[in-house]
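[job 4471] stage=fold_predict status=RUNNING
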Amino acid sequence: MANVLIVDDDSQSRKLLGDLLRHEGYIVIECDNGASALQLVERQNPDLVISDSRMPGMSGEQFIFEFFKQIHPRRTPFIFYTAGGDSPDIRAIADVHKAGILTKPCPAKVILAKVANALNLPSREQIPELPEKLRARIPAYLVRCDEDVAAMKSALTNNHLAAIQALSHNLKGTGSAYGFPRITLLGSALELATKECNLIEIAEELKTLAGYLEVIKGFEECKDRPVDCPTASPRC
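[job 4471] inference complete, writing structure tokens
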């Protein structure tokens, strides 16, 4: 199958895409920044590149420019996978380079269809909403979400709003793909509240997010137990 290079500074987004594509048989190369990805290009010779646009150091926009300058005149399919997919700036750059766009959050079956189309491969007729490989990663994903909430609470105490904005942005981009659209909505609300420097709203959204994660974990822990299990949560 095709070699796919994934470039994203958020490990959760990289893991999500990597697991999804490996499950479909693709060979996946992961990189957390554009500068390192450029060094991999000639060695790995990817058949497709999927990149975030908002990354520290070299942005996705800078990366795509340098990428095509480096491999010119060969044309390699390129897809922006970004929460800023609706931005006119991103769309203008994508048009110039004939790149595709996937706007985070994005259902797994949409991602797979876009990848197959970029590689001129036939897409599967039946793609599950949440492939088993991603479903198996839900417990680890929820642990990471808990860690992000704790980090954001600490950042709020220290008035470090940039950290909250970055973490909430990543939650916004991954929640729906794992089957939790409310995490995406809460991540979006947190990001907006941070941009507006609304500390009260940030605290409220963090409280709501923490409560929702507890509900999810309770469900995940008992969903496979018998209906008459005495320890099963009423939420099940």
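[job 4471] summary: Residues 224-236 have pLDDT under 50 and may be disordered.
[job 4471] exit 0
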